[in-house]
Write a structure and sequence with these properties.
Distance between the termini: 32 Å
Mean pLDDT: 86
Low-confidence stretches: 234-238
Helix content: 40-55%
Number of helices: 32
Shape: globular
Length: 821
Amino acid sequence: VWNVTTAVLYLREDSSNRILKTWHDLSHITNREEVQPNRPAINQQLSKILNDLNQFLTDGVIRPATIVDAMTGEGITDMLLANIGLYAENLKQFADTTYQFEDDVNQWWMGSRLEFPDEPDRWKVLARNNLITMFNKFIFAHALKHYNSSANLVDTIDSNTSLIDGIQVFERISISADFWNIFSRNLGDELTPAYTWSNFKDLNALLKEFSVSQIDASLIHDLLENLAVKVKRKVAGQFATPMPLARLLATLVVLDAAQNVLDPCCGSGTIAKAVYDLKVQKGVKEPLSSLWASDKFALPLNLATLSIAQPENMGKLMRIFPADATQLKPAMAITLHDPRNGAAITASLPTFPFIISNLPFVRQEDLASLNPGIDSINEKIRMLTGDSQLGLAARSDLYTYLPFYLWQMLESGGRLGIIISNSWLATEMGDKFFAALTKFYEVEAIITSGKGRWFQNAKVVTNILLLKKHDQPSVPIPQNVKFVVLKQTVETIAADDLLLDVRSLLHAGQSKEGLLDIQTYTEAELDYLRSLSLPASAYFANLAWLSEVEPSTIKLSQLFNVNRGERRGWDPLFFPPKPNNIEPDYLKPVLKSPQSARGLQVEPDGLAFCCPLSQAELKSLGHRGALAWIESFESAVNEVGQPLTKSLARPGIHWYTMKPDTLADFVTATNPGERLFIGKFAQPTFVNQRLIRLTRLQSDLDVELTQALLNSLLGLFYIEALGFGRGEGVLDLNPTKLKSSMRLLNPALIGAPDRAKILEKFQPLLDRPVLKLEDELTSPDRQLFDETVLQAYNLVELHDDIKAALLKLHRIRNAVNTKSA
């Protein structure tokens, strides 16, 4: 850095910079006007700086940039990516006039858009992907010249070469030297703008001048490896598997590295690379011959090939091929290419002892277009199990279907290891998935993170499922399922050489303090927990105490109507501001924001418009305020232009009426964070849709005692256990799940003396804000209250077990906010 007066040389060390040398010789120049008169001195200073830099290079204090730095640095790719807007416009314009191309792009986007949630413009994403893959073709072709003379064809691309001719050059190279997944034509390649293609031809001239093919093989290794890493960072999407997670999965699944392994949804190729590295580490002589990978789309195949295409693999057959995972079948014919001459090789797809994958995130609503026959899997499940009631839920995501397709691709006793979203653990869809899964597989382990989110770029929480094929789905198989919590980040586990320790402990079913915690459930224990409608997301905790508590409990739905807060459809109408001219008869208290509820005694934070009368009745009563309020919305429309008089119409009520039968006695949040509680209103109150209302079914319910029991240790456990953690650590709490599954200590079992003791110890909690759960459970008033409640039910000896289960589930949920190592 040089601002004329002072020059500073910084040396980058890891992720920081330190000052190596400072030149102050021109500090006498104090303003711009003095620059020109001092030009000789400035030139002399420049000469001195260059001499000093040369000496630093000679002495090895600073390292000169290599071709690896030049080709995989930010400069060239950033220059190319500056063409995204121009390229995207070309793609879009062509789609406007060519329906087949538009359909092809839509198909690709349905399978890929969840990877790019912050990038809604499909044309820009496709343009960027194509720019990067074209960049790969040039770099890889020049590196390949070192090993295969056919790649010299790339040198024929010069300033006069047309785009189509250039694309055909790469196809001709592939015909002779394979690597079709890198050199093949991508969707929209032929729409590369002329200016952009000119940039690529300039890049090609630079690579020819560098004579990449003549550099040392070790530098080519570094070049290709760095290129693979850089490309994945640019285009792989938010669900690209991090290498530490891929290494963990490979270690847990692949118990014999010499055997065949398949990744049927290879994505960025990280898992395939982890399996390849494992095979090399274990001394497998021909690691590529037993490594198979496939994907439905071209870009993942490009990335996967690039990940494994190291110099030592040049000239060797790679079993990376295009295929939809739902179409794979044993003995299926697939086409590979001889890397020596490009000749087509027809291979028969074997069954596999190990299948390993990060299953794709595809929305249910896109499945019909992407996989038209996928619903037939339920027919297969029912036929093979002989159970006509078994099957996946109608709104299941793609990842729930794939294990049943992949089952036929496994050898007898083969092992399947997959990464999937955690959402299945706490939903009805997940219950059906798990029930079917246990017919086709022995579920060895379900693994979650107890420290850090596995996908740092995505606000999702994921699990690893380890499954062993059961050959006869119609014959019951005993299940002993391990629910495993990793207590270290996957980065730490991979970096500290703890992968084998995790595998050994997991297979032995042994927990280890600070590394992993295991809860193992027999089939009978799982059946009992299911009978309580407790979701599988709770099974990571020790729940052995539940059978002792259950006789003292009652279902929440026996005391309350539980539902989401009022969502009438147009908040500006139904939640008027203060002040207003509406008559008090038509205004009811409302709690609009979860943030307004800070304690167990909840105050409304607004007003709700609640008018059952007709406009004629209001006019006859002279209630001009309510009438004027209604009339002010009569000509209004909603977000899609539909009149409110139509969009808000409901049978049996006026379009502007919100019925008072949805008033809440108690309330809790649909997405609580670190504070768990159920608050009580002084009088029945409307609540917003972001809250869950509890409306008592009997007018003689002891509301004071019931609230205390709802907020006892067991009540808080059920709140935590019945939800599942989202990517930012908040709890996703479903009112339907609360209604069907939540239990509380039965207030009818408490006599007057114990009631008085419980309410006495509950009063201090009513008089203060609710604390974050970790602090709440260590507060002396809370501990005394919980012990008093449990003592009244003769369950006080279970206090520590219930507390430990609650805290464990809470910490797992909040573990996503732990920074990775």
